[in-house]
Amino acid sequence: MLPLFHFTPPSPPLRGWVRQHQVIRLRFDSGLVVPVKPYWPRPAAALAFYLRDAEHVALVAGGPQRRKARAVLIGQPTAATLRQGGHDFAVYQIEFEPGALYRLTGLPLDTLTDDWLDAEALFPADFRALVERLAQLDDAGQLIAQAEAWLMARAQAPRRPEAAADVVARRLLAGDGPGLDTLARTHGLDVRQLRRQFAARTGVSPRLFGRVARFDRLVRLANLAPQARWLDLALDAGYHDHQHLARDFREFTGMTPSAFRQLEMQAPERRFGFCESSEPGR
Fold it and tell me: Per the UniProt record, which residue ranges are transmembrane (predicted)?
C-alpha cells in the first residue's frame, strides 16, 4: 500500500550500531513533476538503498546534480541539499549510531563528509547479493530483516572497538554533557586527540557535530509546530537567542529560517500528509 513511511529502531542485537531504519515509498503520476526534497544536515552517517527509481542530489548553494548509485554510504552532511527522486521512489535508509560506520568499514569518515560513495564498490560480494534481494521486496519488515541479518554477520566478526569519540558523540546527540576539555579528560585524552579521533569516526569536529544535532532538533520542532515563533523553537532546541539560530540557518542552508520553511513545506512527503518531526531513536 502506498505511500509508505516506516521508521523504526533496530532489533536488540544491533543497538549501538544502528540508530534507526527508514523505509519510504512514494509514487507520483507520470504527468507530474516530482517535488524536490530539501534535505537539511542531520547528525548521522547512513547506508541507503534506492530500490526503484534513482535519486538525484545537488547542493542548495548550487552546483551540478549528481545521480546516486543504487546503494550508497552517506557521510556526515553539513550543508543542505536538494534531493529529487523519480515517479516511483523507494528508499531504505539505515542511520548509524556515531562511529558505527567507521567500526564496520574502517573508512575514515572525514573523507566522506558532505559526500557519498557507491557501497557496492566498498563491501564484499555478499553485499551485492543483498542489494539484489532488497530490490525484489516491497514489505518494510522483510527489507529490514534482510539488511539486519547482513549487518549482524559483519558486526559479530572481529571489528574495531568503540572509542571515546563514539561515547562523546552520543552525549552530544542527547544535548547534554560538560565541555570538551572535561569530556576529553574523562576518557584519558587531550582535546586535540579527541578532535582527531572524532573527525575520523564521525566526519566532523565535536563542536560542529553538536551544532548539527541542535539544528536538526530545531527543524523537526518547526515541522511539529509550524505556527510557533522561531525564538520559542530556538530556545526549546537549545539555542540561546535568535541570532545563533539565524547564523546556523545561513551556514547550513544558505537561507533564512522563513525561506527554508517555505521550501520544506513543498517537500514530496508533504503531498501525502507526512513530515519529519521526530528525532531518530525517540
Answer: none
* Cβ neighbours for 22, distance < 8 A, ≥ 6 positions apart: 6, 7, 91, 92, 93, 94, 95
Query: How do residues 140-182 score in pLDDT, each as one tens digit?
Result: 999 999 999 999 999 887 678 999 999 999 999 988 767 888 8
> Which residues touch 107 (CB under 8 Å, ≥6 apart)?
73, 101, 122
Question: Which structural domain, as residue segments, surrounds residue 74?
Answer: 4-156
Is the Cβ–Cβ distance between 184 and 191 less than 8 Å? yes
Q: Specify the DSSP class assigned to residue 195.
A: H
For 30, the grid coordinates are 507520470
H-helix or E-strand spanning residue 129: helix 125-134
Q: Is residue 150 part of a domain?
A: yes
The pTM assigned to this predicted structure is 0.94
- What are 216-249's pLDDT values in tens digits? 999 999 999 999 999 999 999 999 999 999 999 9
Determine, yes or no, domain membership for 216: no
Residues of the chain with pLDDT below 70 are: 1, 158, 177, 279-282
% helix, strand, coil for the chain, step of 5: 45, 15, 40
* Burial zone of 129 (CB within 10 Å; 0-12 exposed, 13-18 middle, 19+ buried): exposed
Cα 25 from chain centroid (whole Å): 17
Amino acid at 186: T
According to the model, what pLDDT value does residue 225 have?
Answer: 94
| 281 within some domain | no
Running DSSP on this structure, what letter comes out for residue 135? T
